[in-house]
Every structure is written in C-alpha cells, then in structure tokens.
C-alpha cells in the first residue's frame, strides 16, 4: 500500500506554504496550517477525512499544540480507566511508567501506524486530535460523538511553542528560532493547526450549538480550580464520581497522578516512538509565563487580535 505521503503528494504540491516551526514548511489546507511528512500533518488529516470511521461511543479530546494536551490526555485516560487500576491504589497505573501520549492515542497517528498500547478494544475509544473542527472527519460530527476541547491563553501558547520548537530544532540540529520570529509567525496565524483564534472560535461555536456533545474548557480554569473541573469532566465523559469515591479521595488521587510534578518526574528520561524526548512536554506548567517573554508591544498586539477575533466568546484566560 502506498504511504499516505505518496498518496497526497500531488494535492499538497498545490497548497500555499510557509516556513514551519519544527518541520521545514507548513501548508495551508481548508483555512489552517499543517505540517507535512509528519505524523501530525496535512497528509494524516486528509487520510482521516477519506477513511476514518467514528463510532457513536467514541470520545475525542481536541487541543491546539501546547494548550495542555499532555495534561488533558492523562486526566481523561485516568478518569475513564480508573476502575481498572484502583485495587492496588493506582500503584500499577500506566501513567506511573509511560508518557500520557502513549496512553491516549492521537487520531492523526491512527492512519500512520497500528493500534497503540493500553487501548482496550472493548471499552470506550478515546482519541486526541489537533484537527480544526471544519476539517474533522465527517463521521465524528455525524455521530454526535462527545468532544472535549481545551484552549489556553494565546500568549502562553506562543511561549510554550517557542520553547518546544527550539528544543526539537536543537535535537534535530536545525537553526533555532528567535522569539521575535516566533512572535511574527504566531501573530500571522502560522502555527500547526492555527490560526490559533480560528481554531478556538470553531470549537467554541459548536460547543454553544451542541452543549450536550462538546465540553469547552480552558487550561487556566483547570489550573485554578482543578478539583471541580476534573469532576465536571468526569461527569461529561459519562464516568461521574460516586459519593463513595469522593469520600475515599479518588478525585484527589487522580489529580495528583496527573499533576505536573508527578508526570514531569515520570517522564524525565526516554523518548516517544516519534523520537521526541518525553521531557519535551513538561517545561513549567504555569499560567502567565508570557509575562517573562513578551514585550509590552507584543502583548498589546496579541491582545488586540484576540479582542477582535474572540470578543464575543467570553473566554477568561
Ligand atoms: P509550558 O511550556 O508553559 O510549561 P501540550 O501538552 O499541549 O504540548 O502542552 C505543553 C504545556 O503543558 C507545557 O506548558 C507543559 O509544561 C504543560 N503541562 C504538561 N503537563 C502538565 C500538567 N500535568 N499540568 C499542567 N501543565 C502541564
């Protein structure tokens, strides 16, 4: 079978392109920027649109890169699978030995490689994706599958992406980006699956149209009130905490298991199968780190774009 990179080669050659953050170029497809010849790519998006069949019981989590994907993967995996590991007080939990990216599969990878570890074919299928709502495989929307969307303050996404991209560029011996270059790319909307604002807006719209199917969350809310938001999330996923569980402290256990402190310790060494170091997904895990990176002028420019594009959404970052 031809690789998806060969299948879509001619189609991709016609797309507008710009310099990329991690891969050499980004391509504009259906209004959003994508990498090419990568797991998270325009080819995997096209292949999913052409071949992926959702099931009505599937649950999808959607984020932009650096919006807290790793944290949300850990939480959703831990919530949905919690009864499997409870007897031994979570001591054999996969999140104590493996990166959350190995526990909850990225949809884009499904068309590039075989079933990942820890996925039980008999339980609810959980997938993560960065694909914008307008490019999601149609069957996900047709089935009304549950979707959890998490966004994060754009200025913190920019800072986090800048550090992540340079870590991988260093790893691949590529030239490093300056913060000014990163700022310019981001503010023009150029990031993987960006423009940032259009991605957020698209999912926010469907969350208003279908609140029973789409749960909209921010990294900031999850940071400030982790316990309550984890309980809301569990309920939305169809795995609400029982009174007994709450009394036994199960919510706290899951929050602790998925905390930055715990996961960054577990993932100090080793690489993901894609060759990305496990520790690349853990930097500071704080809100408002942008204050240490952006000039006043940069901050004002991004605030103005956010105000113009997202003013009617009432999101508090
Ligand atoms: P910072 O670079 O600001 O520290 P993603 O998972 O989407 O790639 O996002 C990575 C960001 O989430 C990084 O932000 C990382 O430190 C933070 N992060 C990773 N695990 C986290 C956790 N368990 N709790 C809070 N933040 C976490």
Automatic annotation (TrEMBL):
Domain Sulfotransferase: 56-313
Record's keyword annotation contains Cell membrane: no
UniProt key word Transferase: yes
InterPro entries: P-loop_NTPase, Sulfotransferase_dom
GO molecular function: sulfotransferase activity
Pfam families cross-referenced by the UniProt entry: Sulfotransfer_1
Keywords recorded for this protein, A-Z: Transferase
E.C. designation(s): 2.8.2.-
Family that this chain belongs to: Belongs to the sulfotransferase 1 family.
Name under which the protein is recorded: Sulfotransferase
Organism: Deinandra increscens subsp. villosa
């Amino acid at each position: 079978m031809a690789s998806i990179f060969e299948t879509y080669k001619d189609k991709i050659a016609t797309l507008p392109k710009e310099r990329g953050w991690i891969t050499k170029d980004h391509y504009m497809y259906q209004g959003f920027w994508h990498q090419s010849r990568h797991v998270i790519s325009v080819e995997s998006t096209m292949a999913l649109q052409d071949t992926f069949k959702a099931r009505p019981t599937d649950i999808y989590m959607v984020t932009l890169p650096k919006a807290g994907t790793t944290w949300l993967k850990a939480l959703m995996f831990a919530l949905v699978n919690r009864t499997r590991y409870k007897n031994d007080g979570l001591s054999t939990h996969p999140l104590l030995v493996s990166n959350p990216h190995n526990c909850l599969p990225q949809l884009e990878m499904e068309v590039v490689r075989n079933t990942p570890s820890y996925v039980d074919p008999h339980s609810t299928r959980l997938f993560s994706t960065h694909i914008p709502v307008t490019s999601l495989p149609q069957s996900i929307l047709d089935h009304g599958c549950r979707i959890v969307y998490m966004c994060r303050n754009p200025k913190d996404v920019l800072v986090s992406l800048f550090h992540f991209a340079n870590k991988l560029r260093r790893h691949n011996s590529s030239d490093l980006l300056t913060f000014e270059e990163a700022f310019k790319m981001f503010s023009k909307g150029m990031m993987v699956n960006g423009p940032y604002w259009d991605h957020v807006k698209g999912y926010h719209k469907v969350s208003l149209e279908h609140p029973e199917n789409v749960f909209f969350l921010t990294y900031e809310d999850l940071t400030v009130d982790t316990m309550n938001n984890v309980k809301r999330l569990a309920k939305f996923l169809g795995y609400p905490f029982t009174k007994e569980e709450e009394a036994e402290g199960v919510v706290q256990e899951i929050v602790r298991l998925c905390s930055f402190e715990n996961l960054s310790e577990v993932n100090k060494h080793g690489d993901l199968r894609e060759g990305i170091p496990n520790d690349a997904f853990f930097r500071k895990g704080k809100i408002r780190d942008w204050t240490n990176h952006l000039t006043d002028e940069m901050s004002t420019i991004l605030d103005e774009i956010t105000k113009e594009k997202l003013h009617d959404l009432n999101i508090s970052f």
